[in-house]
Specification:
The complex is a heterodimer of chains A (about 300) and B (about 200). Chain A is of the alpha+beta class and about 300 residues long. Chain A has eight helices and 16 strands. In chain A, the strands form six sheets. In chain A, strands 13-8-3-4-5-14 form a six-stranded mixed β-sheet, with helices on both faces. In chain A, helix 3 packs antiparallel against helix 6. The longest helix of chain A is centred in the C-terminal third of the chain and has 23 residues. The radius of gyration of chain A is 23 Å and the shape is globular. Chain B is α+β, with helices and mostly antiparallel strands. Chain B has one domain: Roll (Nuclear Transport Factor 2, Chain: A). Chain B is about 25% helix and about 35% strand. In chain B, strands 1-2-3-4-5-6 form a six-stranded mixed β-sheet. In chain B, a hairpin with a 2-residue loop joins strand 5 and strand 6. The chains are: A alpha+beta (about 300), B alpha+beta (about 200). Strand 2 of chain A pairs antiparallel with strand 6 of chain B, so a sheet runs across the interface.
Chain lengths: ~300, ~200
């Protein structure tokens, strides 16, 4: 929970000082000028201490069940409600992992093979953190979710264009609607970092979505309509009121205290298919760091 | 918890009985202090009626009048109980912590840490604290015609008198977040600003 804080604007003090200097003493009437101290506080009760959410992006095509497909995006998100810190650990979708009763496969196959529960276990094996909740969204749901909040402001380290998705991203902040946001989440071939860079972009999208929620939390009906939209477009076992409480709770995250890393690895082939051998040691280090103080070291070395 | 608070407040203050006659559809006025008839001009200011004025401002589409009125009434009960326990009552007093009886456990723990901002605990030595303005605009979270959550955007203003430093005005504004769980409304979060100032006798 965010501690009480004092909000006194410098501009107000400056104005008062200027007035005091500019007016004769007998004009300083206490009934016409007063400086009122404004104190603010905020707290939202959702979970004790920390919360871990595994966010999955399903690549289900139209007519296909959300869970009958692969996980195109895999992001483990942690939030410490006491400190306002949050982390995101991106898992390359092609990471080659052992799947119980299914031999070895890309980790993204876990969604189809065992649903959100299996995906939770696979990510836990890799990172060492068991998610409290798994939330899955499809292409259309993600697009509509973004559209339901208007647009999202998303940071990009590099400018790039993607012909496949008709995407034109500027270096710095980009204001994206639902279609553009989905395109950024999916674009890979135009990125020099391939799947790793795409995962990083997905994290920036998550941060942009958080930025939008925080910006809109004071708007009448914004959080309520957002919760309804989330319920309509996400696959989750959270109830509407739980989603509502979660949405209100995440506004306690301090955007300046969000750290994000993507698990690295090396490219390889298995059975003729391109895969990634994830750096499991780095993944475990990232997990330990996140568990330690809900932050990740610069450089993502763990 | 909420019911207990509401019942206790009703027993302790006869004007609560008058709220049964409040309009069932549209803005609900929950009377808190002074009188039961909306205030009469011949009374001194500190005896005038101050009602918690509640109205639903968004999220009511698809809700019938009965559900709407019930939501206003029930949320009004929770907020009224909080206002009574947190700011009004018989002074001097110290029992402000009971103001959070209708908060969830986690929210109540946080609120206890923020008790100086969420109640009139700073002015427990006052001889009286009088309500000057109490409004709540409700944004509803509704599903299948039932209101299950809400944000109450409040403006609460009071005047504390009998203090060593003179009269003080107390103003609390911001949001309280509520959910309905097993037919009981609870506050699970708050995001408020508090501004206290030397009293002027009037609060806008």
């Amino acid at each position: 929970m965010r501690a009480s804080r004092l909000r006194r604007t410098g501009s107000l003090l400056t104005l008062l000082t200027a007035l005091a200097v500019g007016l004769p003493n007998d004009a300083l009437l206490p009934t016409t000028l007063s400086l009122v101290k404004v104190e603010t506080t905020k707290a939202v009760d959702f979970e004790e201490g920390t919360l871990w959410i595994l966010a999955l992006g399903s690549d289900a095509r139209p007519g296909e069940g959300l869970l009958d497909a692969r996980a195109d995006a895999i992001q483990l998100i942690g939030i410490d409600f006491e400190t306002g810190r949050a982390v995101a650990i991106g898992v390359p979708r092609d990471s080659w992992v052992a799947i119980p009763d299914h031999g070895s496969n890309r980790i993204n196959a876990g969604l189809n093979l065992g649903g959100p529960e299996l995906m939770g276990h696979l990510v836990e094996d890799l990172v060492g953190i068991a998610p409290d909740y798994v939330i899955t969204v499809g292409f259309r749901g993600f697009r509509r979710l973004v559209d339901s909040v208007g647009t999202v402001q998303v940071f990009s380290k590099q400018a790039f264009s993607d012909d496949e998705f008709g995407l034109d991203i500027q270096r710095g902040m980009n204001e994206l609607d639902g279609h553009q946001a989905l395109s950024l989440a999916r674009a890979r071939k135009s990125l020099s970092g391939g799947d790793f860079a795409r995962s990083a972009n997905q994290q920036e999208l998550l941060k942009g979505f958080l930025r939008r929620i925080i910006a809109g939390e004071d708007d009448t009906g914004f959080m309520e309509s957002g919760a309804l939209s989330a319920l309509a477009h996400l696959d989750t076992n959270l109830s509407l009121t739980e989603l509502y409480r979660l949405a209100q709770a995440v506004t306690q995250v301090d955007l300046h205290r969000v750290t994000m890393c993507v698990i690295t690895g090396t490219f390889g082939t298995e059975g003729g298919a391109a895969i990634v051998y994830a750096d499991t040691q780095q993944a475990q280090r990232l997990g330990r760091d996140a568990l330690d103080d809900m932050s990740l070291k610069p450089g993502c070395d763990g | 918890m909420m019911e207990g608070m509401g019942s206790r407040a009703r027993r302790g203050n006869p004007v609560w009985r008058a709220r049964a006659a409040a309009t069932m559809v549209g803005p609900v006025c929950v009377l808190l202090a002074g009188c039961s008839d909306g205030g009469s001009p011949d009374r001194p200011p500190d005896q005038s009626a101050v009602a918690l004025q509640i109205r639903i401002v968004s999220g009511a589409r698809g809700i019938d009048d009965r559900e709407r009125a019930e939501a206003e009434q029930e949320i009004g009960d929770v907020l009224s109980a909080y206002v009574v326990s947190g700011f009004l009552g018989d002074y001097p007093r110290e029992d402000f912590v009971q103001s959070f009886d209708s908060f969830t456990n986690g929210a109540a723990r946080s609120a206890a840490r923020d008790i100086d901002l969420l109640t009139a605990a700073r002015f427990g030595d006052a001889s009286t604290v009088t309500a000057r303005r109490l409004t709540a605009a409700i944004s509803c979270l509704a599903k299948d015609g039932n209101v299950v959550g809400a944000t109450a955007r409040v403006t609460l203003a009071f005047e504390a008198s009998g203090l060593a430093g003179g009269t003080r005005t107390i103003k609390l504004s911001g949001r309280f977040m509520l959910v309905k769980d097993h037919a009981t409304w609870n506050v699970f979060g708050y995001d408020v600003a508090r501004a206290d100032a030397p009293g002027t006798g009037q609060t806008s």
